[in-house]
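Table S4 entry, Lysine N-acyltransferase MbtK.
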Amino acid sequence: MSDIGTFTVRPLDPLRDAELLHRWVTDPKAAFWMMQDARLQDVEREYMRIAAHEHHHAYLGLHDGEPAFLMEKYDPRHVELVGLYDPEPGDVGMHFLVAPTDRPLHGFTRAVITAVMEELFADPETRRVVVEPDVTNKAVHALNEVVGFVPEREIDKPEKRALLSFCTRAQFEAARGVSV
């Protein structure tokens, strides 16, 4: 529970949630998601692919019971970052997307990324969260820093130049002001 409300996640249902996701990923504010021109079927297909993948999982994030964000969790040894860095035991990759809204709530995106990180670190096997946002996405770099991410270096992925960043459990707790 945050000051903003309660955040929970549930496994994404690629067919049931596709229309909702389609609205989110094609919104102009989701440009860095790189699905601006996606058709509904493209979104269904992409999330069916993720649902079938052993090392990649998608979740629908809820705020006070209502859909509010998308969270993806992946094993960087097998997805996204293969060959781009040397993974350590307990590394978990993450993507998140906050639903577009015409009624923004101050502090909401920070509360979402905090809830995402809490969810990832709830697994005792998770030692470090790895992200690879587009180098030009300054807003997410600032947000990542707020929750404890430390940039390591830029990397070239097939679809973008990315800023490889890491956040350990201790860095996340320190950023939240929690003593470990």
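The longest strand covers residues 66-74.
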